[in-house]
Amino acid sequence: MKNKKLEIILYVIICLLLANVFWYFAYNYMNDTIGVIAMMLGSFIPMILALIFIKIFRGNYKELGFRLNLKKSWKIYLLSFIISVLLSYVATPLMLLIFNGKVSVDFTQETLMMLFLTPIIGAISSIEMMGEEIGWIGYLYPKLEKNNGTILACIILGIIRGLYHFGIIIVRDFPIHGLIELTVSNILLSFVMVYLFKKSKSLFPICLLHILLNLFPIILVYKDSWYYTSIFPMIISMLPAIIISLYFICLMKKQNLIELKK
Predict the structure, then answer these.
(1) Which of 19, 22, 50, 74 is the most exposed, having the fewest neighbouring CB atoms within 10 Å of its CB?
(2) What confidence tens digit (pLDDT) does each residue in 213-248 have?
(3) Rounded distance, CA 8 to CA 140, Å?
């Protein structure tokens, strides 16, 4: 048990340190070759370290969930797509209704082009997303669940994933707000991803969800910086994610998919 906890601690610390160094270079040298390389390395760090740690600690590569299971789990793939659409756009009419005048919908040519190119870009970025999910869901999550139970493991994983992107957030405006928003959204999303993983025994539905959430263009435009100076708009924008996450927690409980702390 002590070795398992040491394995988790070492993995998380090394992963966060290395990834955030790469993210920092990626976003400070975005237009240079070094920035492109750093971006790819930052995405693949969770996977690379997972493979190394499995070798060192004599784990099982088969447990990573690197299988399609498309025939048995096609409904889970469809569910991933539906969830990505709901999480991306259900909050839009809600924000327009509550914050009328402070937000607007952007349907520029660039936005429409992004929708058209989504399948092409998605095919390319799927490799990058797999690099993250092999590490977080395939390798780390099962270990967190054994030590902490399903609910706490999802919360811990969400916090880790939020900190994993700290190197990206720190170079943007309003970094504290951004880190809180990203961490909370990752915690909520962890419950959804864990359900998909448990039902499909595959990382690919999670990767599909991750890819689409990253690729669907943001169509809400904020009038000024008011969104980043108040907690209320962030809560409203996350309301669909909160409801969806609570639904999947109840679903896991109903289907006996929630493990208790041992």
Answers:
(1) 74
(2) 877 756 666 666 777 777 888 889 999 999 999 999
(3) 7
> Quick one: average pLDDT of 133-159?
96
Name the token pair of 11.
């993995």
Q: What is the pTM of this model?
A: 0.90
Residue from 21, 120, 86 nearest 243 by CA: 86
Distant-in-sequence, close-in-space partners of 114: CB < 8 Å, separation ≥ 6: 215, 217
Q: Mind spelling out the 3-state secondary structure of the chain?
A: CHHHHHHHHHHHHHHHHHHHHHHHHHHHCCCCHHHHHHHHHHHHHHHHHHHHHHHHCCCCHHHHCCCCCHHHHHHHHHHHHHHHHHHHHCHHHHHHHHCECCEEECCCHHHHHHHHHHHHHHHHHHHHHHHHHHHHHHHHHHHHHHHHCHHHHHHHHHHHHHHHCHHHHCCCCCHHHHHHHHHHHHHHHHHHHHHHHHHHCCCHHHHHHHHHHHHCCCCEEECCHHHHHCHHHHHHHHHHHHHHHHHHHHHHHHCCCCCCCC
pLDDT tens across 51-92, in order? 999 999 988 998 899 888 999 999 999 999 999 999 988 988
Q: Which of 141, 147, 157 is nearest to 2 (CA)?
A: 147
Distance CA 76, CA 199 (A): 7
Look at residue 8 in the predicted model and tell me its pLDDT: 95
Torsion 102-107-111-117 (CA) sign: positive
